[in-house]
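The records we work with from here on pair a chain with its fold. Each token is a code from a learned vocabulary of local backbone shapes. A record is reproduced here so that you can trace the correspondence yourselves:

_____
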Amino acid sequence: MPRFSIIVPSHGVAGRLSQALDSVLSQSFGDFELIPVCDAPDSPAAAVAAGYAERDCRVAPVNSPPTAGLAGARNTGLRAAIGDWLLFLDGDDELMPGALAALDARLSETGDVDVLYFEHERTPWWVGEPTNPAALVLARTPGAVFAPEQAPQLTGVQLPAWSAAYRRAFLAAQQLPFPDGHFTDVGFGGLVVLGAERMAVLRQVVVRHLLRRQGNRLNLPGEHHFELLDQAELVLARAVEQGLGESRLGPLFEQLFAAVLKTAAHPRRLPRRRRAFFRRASGLYRRYRPTGFRVPGGSLGVQHRLLARGAYAAFRALRGANRAATRAASGVPRPRGLRTRLRYRWQLRRRLDRNLAVYCAYWGRGYVCNPAAIHAKARELAPHLRSVFLVEAEQAHTVPKDVEYAVIGSRRYWDVLARAKYLINNANFADAVVKRSGSVHLSTQHGTPLKKMGADQATYPVVAAATGSFARLLARVDRWDYNLTSNRHSTQMWESAYPAAHETLEYGYPRNDAYYTATAADVTRIRRELGIPEGKKALLYAPTHRDHATGFESGLDLEALCEEIGDEYVVLLRAHYFYDRGAGRGTGRIIDVTAHRSSEDVCLAADALITDYSSIMFDYANLDRPIVVYADDWDVYREVRGVYFDLMEAPPGRVTRTPGELAAVLRDGSWADEEATALRAAFRERFCQFDDGRAAERVVRRVLLGEPPEAIPPVIPLTERIPAPAATTLVRN
């Protein structure tokens, strides 16, 4: 039987779950079991937990459905636990180094107490000094083992469940599961202290709690705040049932209603039914107010008195006076030009056009990528919607004739942005765009992240300098309602790079549908349009952007490569879109396709891909055609840009580091041999999870038509998908 059972609910934190699990498994004290609680066997967190379970027998994942909430997840872990002592850790928290050894030593001193409280550190997600709020709560407790009567201020309702260790036999004897619903820590913490006889304190930080940028979910608006009253009533009713003395009942009552009044006075937490919340809270206040209870002083005391009287009108007036001084100026539109600015503000006052959808790709580069694929499918499945594509003026000629568009910066551009219900982008809309209530913003992204993105770039000076204000970046991210991913890796990395309250859609990239819907005739047509000579094998060379470079440099002498590998090949050069100037760079056997509008067409035309660290490799892998990595400066790129995983350890095919090595693998056929095929298969299994040819349909049905998640077509298994055929079959020379 292990000394500790550590229960880690993981809903919504798959991107940081590894840090939590690592903090436990790296402890010097090893007598424990680690129980990650995942939503389902196929959830993002389950894949992470399963990997740990394979490597360490102390890891024992269990499942609890999201509908059961945090309480259900913890109770599932509690039922599975067999350790003497229970610890609860949020999926994005960490145990401090040496934490378990310190807990073991303290418990050896105290003996079988019912609960051991300890301190925790709250760490800002970005900048700021950590705080230790538990230290104040525990400051006046005795140094030795004590009974609850000796520390009446320690009621349990002010501390989270992960700020204590609980004797499992005590919780079982008292039949103390976590109460259902939100604010379960309040109910559980209060009931634990009411049932405990022996308690102790460890005056040391044991848990580091990472404050989420998007804040605590409990603070979001909604009627779940009524459940705070449920938890308060549960604890107070148990206290009265036990005949709790006034010395303990007074502090318990005061602390519970401090939380209740904070919610009642917060305008955004209760957008509706504020009066009903106040009335119920007032009834509880009068029912459970201890005899002789003295209200606090100051403004809080005034709120107590108004709540006791049920004086909602006066309470509302007091709240309104306090709120008036804190009104923010956020959301003020600032498009250029006074007339345009005034027009935009006027349009924002008009009713949303619920049948208007606005699309944009690559900051207006044209009708391309995921937004274009979604737009095309929407015309088929949601013809009632009017769609407008946003483009820069010089790209207007690239928009198909039957697609409505608006030039970025024009009055029409601001008009449609102000009134559209649906806004779809693969990057971000301008800072000045206001997120209106009722509008739906979808971020489709435009690649799978190998390199660091978003907030994760902050520790890389060259990239951070180019990115600009991270505060402004994250303000744009806050507008998202949905974020699209094509694989579980992206789901986890976007969570870290773009911390916000949006919902992740694991639907695949709509632009990649073409890799499963295109026919042999389509491939032939595209190759003819690109000028690929009949019978030639086309190698797509697609290098990525270097943040430390000032312009495009291929890093590879393509003319020399062509001479080395023979005249049966042509090379399609596709530079990063940053370097699209509309002018060709190639001659003879080198065909410059950088300016071609569709990267999907270029990939379909290519018989194989040569790339360095470009995200095009993740998309191209859907075609199940050979990929060769040319990594001549991997160490520099990794150091300057930062990466999420070591591509050299998990490549999609053969890795070469010099022009000679590249030419050799192309000449001898090892780029398409069994080993290369096995590497590609593993890569596809990891990164082509959700791309199956129906991604656009899933997005349209869920986002634009509002169909429920259970009605969305499931992803076709990888083994059952049939990629578009290649024009030629690559064989050894």
Notes: The first strand starts at residue 4 and ends at 9.
